[in-house]
Amino acid sequence: MTNTFGSTILRFESVSSTNDVARDLALSSADEGVCVIAREQTSGRGRQGRSWSSTLGEGLYLSIILRPRVEASESAIITLAAAVSVAEALRLDFHIRADIKWPNDIMVAGRKICGILVEAAIEGTRLQYAILGIGVNIAQRLFPEPIGESATSILLETGRRIKPEDFADGLLPRLEHWYTIAMSDSAQVIARWEELSSSGRDCIVRVDSSGDAIEGVTRGLTTAGALIVELANGERREIVAGDVRVRSVTADLA
């Protein structure tokens, strides 16, 4: 299927979280590219400790062990590469007009179809390993509250009922492609991310970060993957972490 990613896939019926399983494997010296896929997660999670709805057989719940040779301060590029990979798979394989909301939410017409979570172990200034977790909504018709009106799935968007493994087959080669590029030329990943995001440039946003809230216009990403937001007074802020709410989109999707 791919050279490395997915050459070893461990499949489970139900786990607490595929990231948990992959982390344990990484601690046991499992190779880069080992992939964990489960039909159900009982404690799936997203960014900032949020839960991720992981009903049996209705989504792709996937984690990959990575051993990137980068500084911890450069690790955001992994998340951006994953977002690019998912957005391309949705657009090219399923003709779904996927959009990326910084840094890693994959949206369709304002509704979330995929979440990405990277969890890493740091030794000194370098990453010992990273676990890339991806959850894609595949066959859901209904979602539990409070996400019922804010989520969507491939089935809802296309009317096609596919197996989660079918999506994984197209996604894994793209993940390996963009991850490899990220390790050698992060500028290519950032440029592609900006092409696939309607809100990365010239978009009015509100950002909640570390208890502080600002509003401004997005001006692209830094070389480290931070979101640049220009305030009304002309000051530019680099957002490393936070929640972004789109107020007005002025740029067309690539």
Overview of the molecule:
By secondary structure, this protein is of the alpha+beta class. The protein has two domains: about 10-195, Bira Bifunctional Protein, Domain 2 (BirA Bifunctional Protein, domain 2), CATH 3.30.930; about 200-250, SH3 type barrels, CATH 2.30.30.100. The chain is about 25% helix and about 30% strand. The chain contains five helices and twelve strands. Helix 4 (about 165-185) packs across helix 5. It is globular and about 55 Å long. The two termini are about 30 Å apart. The relative contact order is 0.15.
- The CATH topology of the largest domain, please? BirA Bifunctional Protein, domain 2
**What's the helix-strand series?**
EHEEHEEEEHHHEEEEE
Cα-atom radius of gyration: 17 Å
So, the CATH homologous superfamily of the largest domain?
Answer: Bira Bifunctional Protein, Domain 2
Structural domain count: 2
Q: What is the gist of this entry?
A:
It contains five helices and twelve strands. The chain is of the alpha+beta class.
Layout of helices and strands:
Layout: E1 9-12, H1 18-27, E2 35-38, E3 59-66, H2 76-94, E4 99-101, E5 105-108, E6 111-123, E7 126-137, H3 154-158, H4 164-184, H5 186-196, E8 201-209, E9 212-221, E10 227-230, E11 236-239, E12 243-249
Parallel strand pairs: 1-2
Antiparallel strand pairs: 2-3, 3-7, 4-5, 5-6, 6-7, 8-9, 8-12, 9-10, 10-11
Helix pairs in contact: 2-4, 2-5, 4-5
Features:
single chain; about 250 residues; alpha+beta; BirA Bifunctional Protein, domain 2; SH3 type barrels; seven-stranded mixed β-sheet; 5 helices
